[in-house]
Structure formats: C-alpha cells, structure tokens
Amino acid sequence: KVLIAAAVAASCIAPQAFAQTNGASGFTGFSATANANASTSSTEVSGSGAYVDMGKSSQDVSLQAAYGFAMGNNYVLGLGATYALGDLKFGSASAGSLSASLKGKDAYSIYLEPGYAFSSSTLVYAKLAYLGMKGEAEGSSRGSEDFSGVGYGVGVRHKLNKNLFLQGEITQADYSGETVAGTSFKPSGTTGTVGIGYQF
C-alpha cells in the first residue's frame, strides 16, 4: 500500500515539477517586437592627412522578428532579425582641412540569441549579431557606402501574460572601416533598447 501510495504521489508531483522547470516552453516559437533605441556612437575619421574622433547620441525605433527553439527544459536558442525605421547619427567633426559627417540608413541585424529561462515568464539572453547599414557621409565630397560589422550584448525578456512580453537589452556595435567621399570612417556604438513584443 505504501508503494502504491508513493507511486501515485510521484505520478502527480512529477508533471508539476517538470512544468515548473520547463521554462523554455514560454519562449519558443515565433515572436514580433517593436523597440525604442537610444544609441551613443564614436567614429574614427581620417583623411587629408588628418585624424579625428567624432561622436553623437541618437534615438530611433526598430522592428524585430524572431523564432525561439527549445534546447532543453530551460535553454532557448533564438534566431532573429531587426530593421531600424530611423537614421543612426554618428556625428560631425573637423580638424584642420578635414571636415566630415556620417549617418546610417536602413540599419539591420541578423542574430543568434542563446538564453536561459529561469521560469516560463523570465528569460535572460546573450546576443551575437551580424550588422549592416548604408552609410551616407560628407568628407571632401558627398557619398555613400555599405557598412557591415558585428554586435554583441545581453538582455532580459519578461512575460506579462501568455503572449505579451517586455524586453530590455544593451548591445555594442563595431563596424568595419569604409572610405566614403575620400574620407575613412570606422563607426562603433553602444545601444540601450526597450521593447514590447508578442509571442505567437
């Protein structure tokens, strides 16, 4: 009788324990997010025998689409992309005969996002991304060039209910150097993001 009672108790407790530890289930599948971003940039500029650093703070909004894959009870691997709806401002500067400015348009990212779910409502994650944008610059003349780079950061996502969630993250972006309008630009920056999303 004791064994039977123990077996019945185990059969009742085990599913509940699994449900409590299977946090990954809350963050799998397709999701869409709208983000507000605040960025601080620093750009190395050289040309005409001169060198200068320039920086700028800017804000924009972006759209994000992602899919989460459960990698165990508590681990989630996200694959996604973002697209910025506004321009990234990298500032302007002058030194001697060098005068330059740069802004980024159509910025996007494609990323991997390994995460750990403490519960079905809270996920912390790291991010590794490929970045791209169209840089419009003024140097000795005007021009544009495609910039690419890498981004990395950390974030947290919290469910408000079964579908709706909030997220916040901070990321670092490092772009490769490109020459535009006779001037070399190498932008980088740090971005803080807050967003609201829907898990389908």
Protein traits:
200 residues, mainly beta, eight-stranded antiparallel barrel, 1 helix, 10 strands, 72% strand, disordered N terminus
What does the model show?
With 200 residues, the protein is mostly beta strands. The protein contains one helix and ten strands. The protein has an eight-stranded antiparallel beta barrel. Residues 1-20 have low confidence and may be disordered.
Number of helices, counting only DSSP H or I runs of 4 residues or more: 1
Which class do the helix and strand fractions yield? Answer: mainly beta
Strand tally is 10
Helical fraction: 10-25%
- What's the helix-strand series? HEEEEEEEEEE
Strand content: over 45%
**Average pLDDT level:** 85
Uncertain residue segments: 1-20
> In whole angstroms, how far apart are the ends?
46 Å
Brief digest:
This protein is mainly beta and 200 residues long. The protein has one helix and ten strands. Residues 1-20 have low confidence and may be disordered.
